[in-house]
């Protein structure tokens, strides 16, 4: 499998881990079915103007059935406690489904967050 992508729109499956919104509590994204994709995955997390004394920590989980979940090794973003932070991670999944999970700590949290999850589409 090549890691060079000439046509991103046609070659990569990209999904919203969580849509852009201000989060005031822990957040779990929708279940993403990666049956049409293969190989290494990537995720992008963007955190906007985070409130004082608040931290946001995001990670990716996987599932074989879409109901029982476990964290993926090396699929964690660094904790964010400053404004306007963008991080990209790569990871390998071993199960069909993935989702984004964000954990917020601190008093009266207000965190604008969005996340994307993607993987190269299978070629037949």
Low-confidence stretches: none
CATH topology title: Jelly Rolls
The tally of beta strands, per DSSP, is 9
Give helix and strand order, one letter per element, not per position: HEEEEEEEEE
Whole-number tally of structural domains: 1
Helical content (DSSP H or I, runs of 4+):
under 10%
- CATH top level class name: Mainly Beta
Mean pLDDT value = 93
Shape: globular
Q: How large is the share of residues in beta strands?
A: over 45%
How many helix segments? Answer: 1
CATH architecture: Sandwich
Question: What would a concise description of this structure say?
Answer:
The protein is mainly β and 124 residues long. Helices cover 3% and strands 56% of the residues.
Q: What can you see in these coordinates?
A:
- The structure is a single chain.
- The chain has 124 residues and is mainly beta.
- It has one helix and nine strands.
- It has one helix at residues 8-11, and strands at 12-23, 27-28, 32-33, 37-47, 55-63, 70-76, 85-91, 97-105, 111-121.
- The model has no long low-confidence stretch (mean pLDDT 93).
SSE layout and pairing:
Blueprint: H1 8-11, E1 12-23, E2 27-28, E3 32-33, E4 37-47, E5 55-63, E6 70-76, E7 85-91, E8 97-105, E9 111-121
Antiparallel strand pairs: 1-9, 2-8, 3-8, 4-7, 4-9, 5-6, 5-8
Summary keywords:
124 residues, mainly beta, Jelly Rolls, five-stranded antiparallel β-sheet, four-stranded antiparallel β-sheet, 1 helix
């Amino acid at each position: 499998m090549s890691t060079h992508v000439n046509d991103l729109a046609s070659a990569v499956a990209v999904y919203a881990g969580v849509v852009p919104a201000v989060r005031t509590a822990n957040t779990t994204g929708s279940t993403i079915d990666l049956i049409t994709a293969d190989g290494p995955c990537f995720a992008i997390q963007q955190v906007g103007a985070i409130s004082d004394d608040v931290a946001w920590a995001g990670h990716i989980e996987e599932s074989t059935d879409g109901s029982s979940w476990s964290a993926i090794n090396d699929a964690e973003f660094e904790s964010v406690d400053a404004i306007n932070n963008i991080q990209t991670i790569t990871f390998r999944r071993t199960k069909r489904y993935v989702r984004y999970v964000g954990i917020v700590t601190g008093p009266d949290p207000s965190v604008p967050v969005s996340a994307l999850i993607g993987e190269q589409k299978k070629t037949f």
